[in-house]
Q: What sequence folds into this?
């Protein structure tokens, strides 16, 4: 029996090592998995089988490339007052960033968008529900978490009314994000005759290997003309006026203009990937008018052919910044490339601010963050901790002129494993108010210094350091 166990342990360790060496893009992640496989015989191989292998990359690429090419943006109707790019791209560095974004995403930058920040569920949810109630042709909703609580019930009722009016409604919920609570939700969807799917169900035995690859996108589209996206889930936790048990501040965005087509196309591809149904026609992709002055581009990201697009955009934005970089994120576990980008920006004289919640809703993630803060603090990056309620917002503002918002956190999971959606925007009409929002957060925040991080008790440093070792899985 001992010989059998030893043989299995050696075979499993060798199998993981060979697969990691040949398949893992990141050598540090490969070395980490090899170490896990040998330190924890058999168990390490099981963990690698479920969490270390990206099975969806080739499958997703094959389905999306062969069956559904991206939708071409319809012809745009010019606005009454045309505006030249030079009015927005004030400086060579923004023009360079614009060209980089096109090469990274393979999507054009669209002009004429109006993007409105909506703070917390108190502003976002009424606007979203009102839009669904006004829908005439189509509603597409994709979310990571859909709680069956008062807010979730309002959305179900609104979607149900849309179905009764003859509106084409499609709902996509991540299987893991809702903590398997979707069973009761789907009973209500069925009762209301709302077409709904779960993204990669994991309780099916042959699907359990996809457990680690989740759809973290938050997208609502209405009639193909109006969209909402950002970091907000469908949960009463974001409705602060209700004084929920676990309140969470956030910023969501109402989007009008040609970039809505790119948001819609991302939903279309996800829905087809999950259900096999293709959504097309005027109900989903109407011709779009210019609505505002903001230039914008959607950035889909995931462990498929969209791999690490957001990370490349983040690095490009940091490299092109000339004055300031403002980052708001609930989770900060950047890899060495992003850490280097932050440090180089700070050392070149830029003002770099990173705003984090005072207390994370995930303790282990917070510990891992504490273990790496010294690496950016010692180079001049300013780190701030915002007091409760928990701040779930995800923003980046560069030079008061360029903005990135969406569903991605600054961690391994968002930038390597999850399917995410973000929007990059050029223009002070949006960046200016968001800069003011960051300033407001900082005015209430506690600065974190290198002395504070170095002064943690030794047991806490050890705990945090151990948590950081698991950062590829957090």
A:
């Amino acid at each position: 029996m001992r010989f059998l166990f030893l043989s299995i342990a050696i075979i499993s360790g060798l199998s993981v090592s060979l697969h990691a060496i040949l398949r893992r893009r990141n050598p540090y992640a490969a070395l980490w998995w090899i170490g896990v496989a040998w330190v924890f015989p058999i168990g390490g191989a099981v963990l690698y089988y479920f969490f270390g292998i990206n099975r969806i990359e080739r499958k997703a690429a094959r389905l999306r490339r062969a069956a559904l090419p991206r939708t071409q943006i319809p012809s745009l109707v010019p606005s009454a007052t045309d505006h030249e790019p030079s009015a927005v791209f004030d400086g060579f560095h923004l023009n360079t960033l614009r060209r980089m974004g096109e090469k990274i995403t393979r999507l054009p930058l669209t002009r004429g968008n109006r993007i409105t920040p909506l703070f917390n569920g108190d502003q976002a949810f009424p606007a979203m529900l009102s839009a669904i109630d006004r829908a005439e042709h189509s509603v597409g909703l994709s979310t990571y978490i859909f709680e069956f609580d008062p807010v979730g019930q309002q959305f179900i009722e609104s979607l149900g009314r849309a179905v009764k009016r003859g509106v084409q409604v499609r709902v996509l919920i991540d299987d893991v994000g809702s903590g398997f609570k979707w069973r009761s939700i789907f009973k209500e969807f069925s009762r209301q005759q709302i077409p709904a799917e779960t993204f990669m169900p994991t309780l099916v035995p042959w699907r359990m290997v996809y457990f680690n690859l989740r759809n973290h996108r938050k997208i609502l589209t209405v009639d193909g003309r109006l969209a909402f996206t950002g970091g907000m889930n469908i949960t009463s936790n974001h409705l602060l006026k209700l004084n929920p048990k676990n309140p969470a501040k956030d910023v969501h965005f109402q989007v009008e203009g040609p970039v809505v087509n790119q948001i819609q196309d991302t939903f279309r591809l996800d829905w087809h990937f999950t259900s096999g149904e293709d959504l097309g026609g005027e109900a989903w992709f109407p011709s779009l008018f210019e609505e505002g002055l903001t230039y914008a581009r959607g950035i889909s990201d995931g462990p498929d052919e969209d791999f690490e697009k957001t990370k490349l955009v983040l690095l490009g934005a940091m490299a092109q910044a000339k004055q300031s970089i403002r980052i708001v994120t609930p989770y900060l576990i950047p890899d060495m490339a992003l850490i280097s980008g932050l440090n180089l920006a700070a050392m070149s004289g830029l003002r770099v601010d990173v705003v984090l919640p005072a207390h994370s809703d995930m303790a282990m993630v917070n510990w891992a963050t504490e273990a790496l803060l010294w690496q950016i603090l010692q180079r001049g990056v300013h780190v701030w901790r915002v007091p409760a309620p928990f701040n779930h917002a995800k923003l980046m503002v560069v030079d008061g002129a360029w903005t990135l918002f969406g569903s991605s956190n600054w961690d391994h999971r968002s930038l390597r494993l999850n399917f995410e959606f973000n929007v990059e925007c050029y223009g002070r009409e949006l960046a200016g108010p968001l800069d003011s929002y960051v300033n407001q957060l900082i005015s209430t925040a506690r600065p974190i210094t290198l002395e504070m991080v170095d002064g943690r008790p030794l047991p806490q440093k050890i705990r945090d350091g151990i948590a950081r070792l698991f950062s590829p899985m957090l």
